[in-house]
Amino acid sequence: MELEELTDIFYTSDKKGQVCRVKLNASGFTLQRESTGGRSREQVIDLNDIVGSRCIVVKKDRRGCSMLCTSAMQTDGNRSDSGDDTKRKSNSVTFEHKDASAYLYVFAYILNKKHLRNIIRRERTVLKLRFRSFDTFGDNMREAERWYQTVRAFKGHSLGHSDTDERRILVLLNPKSGSGKAREIFNRQVVPVLNEAEQSYDLHVTKHANYAREFIRVKILDNYSGIVAVGGDGLFFEILNGLLMRADWMEARNIPLGIVPCGSGNGLARSIAHVCGEPYEPKPILGATLTLLSGKSMPMDVVRIQQQNQILYSFLSVGWGLISDIDIESERLRSLGYQRFTIWTLHRLISLRTYRGKVSYLPKESFNMESDTMSLADPLPLKHSRSCNTCLDKLHNGCFQSTDCIETSKYYDVISLQNSINQSLQSRCDSWFSPASCRSTYHSVSESIYHSVADESDAESRLQLSNLSVHLCGPTGSAPTLDEPVPSTWVVEEGEFVMVHAAYQTHLGSDCYFVPQAKFNDGIIYIVIIRSGISRSQLLNFLMGMSSGTHVPITNNEYVKMVPVTAFRIEPYDNEGILTVDGERIEFGPLQAEMLPGVVHVMAPK
User: Fold this and answer.
1) Is the pTM higher than 0.70?
2) Residue 282: what pLDDT?
3) Which residues form a coiled coil (predicted)?
4) What are the C-alpha distances in Å from 257 to residues 145, 171, 216, 225, 299?
5) Fewer Cβ neighbours under 10 Å: the N or C end of the chain?
């Protein structure tokens, strides 16, 4: 159904009497104001940059103090529509109207390409429309509501869903991510934007390692349109593995996954922004939050990791040697944030280690699949696998008590919406007034009606999940098992290695541009092998080049090579060392990895 285009005449607040024509359609808002000499200036606020809008009503209490609330259609159902000033009660406080105006706030985050130092960033803009064409408050509010509903309808069409869709997201937050400020970042930077978009969510705070994995494995996900990790890559790793360990993983994998980067590395969030051409620095939290609201997603490759006692699923990297040593051993300096990696890199260069073992891999050109021409929407068929984890066949009673793990966002919504509206006071965007407006402008603070709710009890979750088969979980591939010899099509390298690191995203961290050519669904693992014998100066140049993507030589040499593969196997000869998957330390021993193209979906910016 084609939606109606709205047009009206408003006056600007900066120059009294200046006329502006405001038009709202499927492209967004077009603001055309007349200037001297009969010429006109036009400004466009793209619909994709708009996160939401809100109708505002100004009220005064008995003392004459201004009080602000959301749409009168929602907060004052007993309101008389007569033009007389009427007294009414709301929350045991008496209000009376002194102004017939109604207001519409439109919140947008516009891409600014003219910033200092050539930094491209998104900046918050608030468009404020004041409706006073009619003599009565009720008529003006109805007109503001009509514009509000039209904005929502256009936004709904652009996202591919109707107004009746409930777009709840499930948020898991790791309070210890990075320097331990994830909770503060979420409350101060993420929640205000979610409130502006009227995005409802359920917030759960993790309690210990692997909490998110078990939580997602048993959680009923029917009412969620997405799952978001507020933390580092480790939290996303837990969510991914919990999702693919579910008995209904074939259906659950279609739920888009998102991340708000609060960790030390933040490789996934940086890769998403890079691949999609979205600004990351200097405001990565804002960009990630807007990505959650975009309604867009893209397929992402997953790598299946096989060890003797477990199956894991990876989205970022597998490491053995130098980079893994730096990542894990620098944990003792976690309070320093990202700087801990630089300090420990210098330490490891001074006391350089080598590791004996065998690395086998299947080069990309040898892999018998149609990935070169494969559509992003049509990944390879997936099969069920029998889990090696015995705990998957049992549901742990008492793992998740709702009173312990659920934090509602109601309190934060109130504070955040207040901050959102108050920020509009400093907005550089003009306010626009409909005819017959007075010049006075009122700003509104209101409690959002979109807040978290307590989810189902553990008993209900376990009961519904128990109706599903829990014997077959997770996708599998076609590579041989870890106990079988590698086929003749694989390349085998043996000796001493400084590092073996495989990656399938562009960035391993915010400042680590590891694989410039990587895509989210190209079906390729890029494995970097550094052999013993490399000089410390060469190794230092390699590590310094990772920030710009110039670390790997154009042509492979005797010490450093990057090979595109679809499967690989690492077999250490010694019993000591560090193996990491997505930055998380795993059991040391033989490991095999195989690419599974496009298994899950990640949220993407528009």
Assistant:
1) yes
2) 86
3) none
4) 33, 10, 12, 9, 10
5) N
